Amino acid sequence: FDMLRRVGWGYFDSFYPVVCSLRYCSTGNASKKQLPRNYWKDKGNQRGFLEKFRTERKLDHPNDWYTVKWQDLRQSGGLGLLKEYPTLCAALQYHYPDIKWNPLLFVRKPRNFWDSHEHQRLFFDQIATKYKINSQEDWKRVGYSIVIKEGGTALMRRFSSFIEALERIYPEKEWDVSVARKQYPKGYFRTLEAQRAHLDKLKEQHDIKKHSDWS
């Protein structure tokens, strides 16, 4: 240790970067000391930081991670770790793959979070489960107020109407706005496609065969 004090840690970093990284195991140290180049590229260093952070913050249950904000990790010296992953959820999914993480439950979501079709669908799937939605007609019971209450305000800004959200999130289904919604969205009949679809439905419902049947 006398030699260590004389030459400093920097001397050993050049020869044993992984071993010497142990001195950064404290999240406090990680924020105050100069870290070796590519320190955060090392998966062991990433895992070590997350484990230390978990212990210091008393995150005893996986669900406790949902309350963690990016700024919490940044203040503890984890800025370099955050740069290696698009989201905290992605980092946790990599280092703790045995846990089923729900990206919707994290208090902080990245700016483009709702651009992901996967996230959009997961959100609507959860609503369908919670409100027992089993058919198109069941969606009539779900309005904007429910979506907002469940945290989907930013998501719905990406669609001009509720039916458009359903059509784009579940493109494999053939949606009938008259079945899935209580009323047609504003401006719905401005397109010829919507007008034609509505007339075709009326023809089928009223068994219209010829022009005179419309009168």
Write structural notes for this entry.
It contains 14 helices and no strands. The chain is 48% helix and 0% strand. The longest helix has 14 residues, at 43-56. Mean pLDDT is 81; it is low at 1-26. By secondary structure, it is mainly alpha-helical. The termini are far apart. The chain has two domains: 2-103, no CATH class; 113-214, no CATH class.
Number of strands: 0
Tell me the β content.
Answer: under 5%
Order of helices and strands: HHHHHHHHHHHHHH
Q: Name the shape in a single word.
A: elongated
For the sheet with most strands, the description reads: none
Count of helical stretches: 14
Structural class: mainly alpha
Mean pLDDT: 81
**Fraction of residues in H or I helices:** 40-55%
List strands and helices in order, with pairings.
Elements: H1 2-7, H2 9-13, H3 17-20, H4 27-32, H5 43-56, H6 70-75, H7 79-82, H8 88-95, H9 117-130, H10 144-149, H11 153-156, H12 162-169, H13 177-180, H14 192-205
